[in-house]
Write a structure and sequence with these properties.
By secondary structure, the protein is α/β, with parallel strands linked by helices. It has 8 helices and 9 strands. The chain starts with a helix and ends with a strand. It binds zinc ion (ZN). Zinc ion binds next to strand 2.
């Protein structure tokens, strides 16, 4: 009789205890699998954002992290290239110089100076024809190979030219493919400092400061016109980038 009275509550207690145990085990499993708020099935660390986009253009730094890649186009220039090299050396920065063949032929010493400071070369065609993408394959080949050959003459056979950049950043599949056949990566950018428009030093500084982010490839110019604004902007931007914790890398 006693049992009859007591059994149902005992049954309930066991049921409650069993339920509590199940809940506790479930909670422990959940706690272990979601430590630090990570999802139970934590994915592998995010792979680096691909440096080469599906269109085959490089717009990111080679390394992941707080890096930027500086690139200077349209030189070498006897006035501005040495000033830019000095500014880069003071900041311990590296950069890639996209040179125009006609300037290379005029100033081969500057190609050697760029290399001696630990910088990299980029082929920016023989004559900076912004309609290159409309030209025949033969003409495109001559423009790309012509600059490449001038760089070899200036700095010695087999000097590395890891990049090619199309004039004006205007690409076509043949342009990209011919550069690739020469062993060069198609170098684009992700931040245009717009120094080519001569907007004033302050504006160039502001544009870069507002647009820069880890992995950015920044477009600037050491040739193709008066580049005083670029040099002055660089002298402000380099210490600022360093103060922000940026390091300097190559395009990927
Ligand atoms: Zn250019």
């Amino acid at each position: 009789m006693r049992y009859r009275v007591l059994r149902p509550p005992y049954c309930y207690r066991w049921a409650i205890l069993l339920s509590a145990l199940v809940v506790a085990i479930a909670a422990m499993v959940s706690a272990f699998s979601s430590a630090d708020g990570a999802p139970a099935q934590a994915p592998a660390p995010a792979a680096k954002a691909v440096a080469t986009t599906p269109d085959g253009l490089v717009r990111e730094t080679a390394r992941e992290g707080k890096f930027v890649a500086l690139t200077f186009d349209d030189g070498p220039d006897p006035v501005y290239t040495p000033q830019i090299l000095d500014a880069l050396s003071r900041a311990g920065a590296v950069a890639t110089f996209c040179m125009v063949g006609t300037n290379v032929a005029r100033h081969p010493d500057l190609v050697r100076a760029v290399l001696s400071r630990g910088m990299r070369l980029c082929d920016h065609t023989l004559s900076h024809d912004e309609d290159l993408s409309k030209r025949s394959e033969q003409r495109v080949t001559a423009e790309i190979a012509g600059c490449w050959s001038d760089l070899q003459v200036a700095a010695g056979a087999d000097v590395p030219v890891p990049y090619f950049r199309a004039p004006g950043g205007i690409w076509s599949d043949p342009v990209r493919q011919i550069a690739a056949r020469q062993g060069m990566k198609a170098l684009s950018w992700s931040v245009d400092a717009r120094d080519w428009a001569l907007p004033g030093t302050a504006k160039i500084v502001e544009t870069v400061r507002q647009s820069v982010r880890p992995g950015a490839v920044i477009l600037l110019h050491d040739g193709g016109g008066k580049r005083t604004q670029t040099v002055e902007a660089l002298n402000q931007l380099l210490p600022w980038l360093v103060a922000q914790g940026y390091q300097f890398d190559w395009p990927g």
